[in-house]
């Protein structure tokens, strides 16, 4: 039995962060200032706090300016929108990221819609999703762009391949499908109402699973030789020892007998997200300074 390759997202992300670091040095030499990323955290959700802390650390490690704004969960929407406006107007800020989810009394769409699209390094603003959907230069959401980088690194030209994206969120599934379409894949988007998901997945040369259900995609669903990108992050508790661990949306151990290559969870897509966030910030800084997009990114 042949065993597929495990794609090392951690190593790829490290290389990408290194390239971003070199780009930051060059940008700073040209402009006399560092690219800046502002991250806004509302409330004290433990997972969000960890993400924000990691983003801050990695931003500094890449040689950029990191600005963190921690606001109480009780903050009003107006006050949050005022902060976003201030960051829009601040020349030191190239990228603005408002950590989601926001408390229920705040309208996420209004907050995202207030971010200057040129500083929208998460790529969630409708201007950016519209640009992406119409095949124009856009700020692309970090996770799907990271998935695409891993796919291109593994497969080279994706043209003509059958791609199935499981999940249709605005953050992962939909932009992932747009990116694959732009690479000339034949794209199917599956979701919770899809009939016979197993046979839909089975026709794919590329499977991207972004569902949020532990090991839902079974090994036998995968077409032999397909490449699988597992975006899911699911915490499960072992019945035997009661310990919890993180698994993806794909039953990786089973899938390994079928795939050409697969991303592990953890260590696959996860590390790519922050690396692409830094990349997007550097790209935004170049655009704002009237400089050409940095090469190799
Ligand atoms: P959402 O909950 O927003 O979307 C989940 C999607 O999965 C929906 O489109 C839903 O369909 C679909 N779905 C749910 N159940 C099924 C089913 N039984 N069969 C087929 N499709 C189904 O999640 P996100 O897109 O935000 O995230 C997906 C996963 O990726 C999560 O585990 C999340 O933690 C992870 N993630 C990881 C990141 C990383 O950095 N590695 C970044 C972002 C997310 P419908 O629309 O019909 O409800």
From TrEMBL:
<keyword id="KW-0378">Hydrolase</keyword>
<keyword id="KW-0560">Oxidoreductase</keyword>
<keyword id="KW-0368">Histidine biosynthesis</keyword>
<dbReference type="InterPro" id="IPR020867">
    <property type="entry name" value="THF_DH/CycHdrlase_CS"/>
</dbReference>
<dbReference type="GO" id="GO:0004477">
    <property type="term" value="F:methenyltetrahydrofolate cyclohydrolase activity"/>
</dbReference>
<dbReference type="InterPro" id="IPR020630">
    <property type="entry name" value="THF_DH/CycHdrlase_cat_dom"/>
</dbReference>
<feature type="binding site">
    <location>
        <begin position="167"/>
        <end position="169"/>
    </location>
    <ligand>
        <name>NADP(+)</name>
    </ligand>
</feature>
<keyword id="KW-0658">Purine biosynthesis</keyword>
<comment type="similarity">
    <text>Belongs to the tetrahydrofolate dehydrogenase/cyclohydrolase family.</text>
</comment>
<keyword id="KW-0554">One-carbon metabolism</keyword>
<dbReference type="Pfam" id="PF02882">
    <property type="entry name" value="THF_DHG_CYH_C"/>
</dbReference>
<dbReference type="GO" id="GO:0000105">
    <property type="term" value="P:L-histidine biosynthetic process"/>
</dbReference>
<protein>
    <recommendedName>
        <fullName>Bifunctional protein FolD</fullName>
        <ecNumber>1.5.1.5</ecNumber>
        <ecNumber>3.5.4.9</ecNumber>
    </recommendedName>
</protein>
<comment type="function">
    <text>Catalyzes the oxidation of 5,10-methylenetetrahydrofolate to 5,10-methenyltetrahydrofolate and then the hydrolysis of 5,10-methenyltetrahydrofolate to 10-formyltetrahydrofolate.</text>
</comment>
<keyword id="KW-0028">Amino-acid biosynthesis</keyword>
<dbReference type="GO" id="GO:0035999">
    <property type="term" value="P:tetrahydrofolate interconversion"/>
</dbReference>
<dbReference type="GO" id="GO:0004488">
    <property type="term" value="F:methylenetetrahydrofolate dehydrogenase (NADP+) activity"/>
</dbReference>
<comment type="subunit">
    <text>Homodimer.</text>
</comment>
<dbReference type="InterPro" id="IPR036291">
    <property type="entry name" value="NAD(P)-bd_dom_sf"/>
</dbReference>
<feature type="binding site">
    <location>
        <position position="233"/>
    </location>
    <ligand>
        <name>NADP(+)</name>
    </ligand>
</feature>
<dbReference type="InterPro" id="IPR000672">
    <property type="entry name" value="THF_DH/CycHdrlase"/>
</dbReference>
<dbReference type="InterPro" id="IPR020631">
    <property type="entry name" value="THF_DH/CycHdrlase_NAD-bd_dom"/>
</dbReference>
<dbReference type="GO" id="GO:0009086">
    <property type="term" value="P:methionine biosynthetic process"/>
</dbReference>
<keyword id="KW-0521">NADP</keyword>
<dbReference type="InterPro" id="IPR046346">
    <property type="entry name" value="Aminoacid_DH-like_N_sf"/>
</dbReference>
<feature type="domain" description="Tetrahydrofolate dehydrogenase/cyclohydrolase catalytic">
    <location>
        <begin position="7"/>
        <end position="122"/>
    </location>
</feature>
<feature type="domain" description="Tetrahydrofolate dehydrogenase/cyclohydrolase NAD(P)-binding">
    <location>
        <begin position="141"/>
        <end position="287"/>
    </location>
</feature>
<dbReference type="GO" id="GO:0005829">
    <property type="term" value="C:cytosol"/>
</dbReference>
<keyword id="KW-0511">Multifunctional enzyme</keyword>
<keyword id="KW-0486">Methionine biosynthesis</keyword>
<dbReference type="Pfam" id="PF00763">
    <property type="entry name" value="THF_DHG_CYH"/>
</dbReference>
<comment type="pathway">
    <text>One-carbon metabolism; tetrahydrofolate interconversion.</text>
</comment>
<dbReference type="GO" id="GO:0006164">
    <property type="term" value="P:purine nucleotide biosynthetic process"/>
</dbReference>
